[in-house]
Amino acid sequence: NKLYGKTFAENDGVVKLHHYCGNTEEGILRQHIRKNGKFYDIVVTSILRDEWLEQREELEYEKFSFE
Predict the structure, then answer these.
(1) CA-to-CA distance for 36 and 3, rounded, in angstroms?
(2) How confident is the model at residue 59 (pLDDT cuts 50, 70, 90)?
(3) What is the dihedral of CA 51, 56, 60, 65, to 10 degrees?
């Protein structure tokens, strides 16, 4: 019923993509990941099934399939 994603807060492009797809920001996990001696915040976003069904027709994207 819910799809969620996590991405580095510094990755503005992916955060914007999640919002474009209708995801709601649920929160920020502060200093959640340590990489190369530096701590990074993680943005958690999600979308509920009903929300996706409401808006999927409005999104413009090219449909493709995996083979």
Answers:
(1) 29
(2) confident
(3) 130
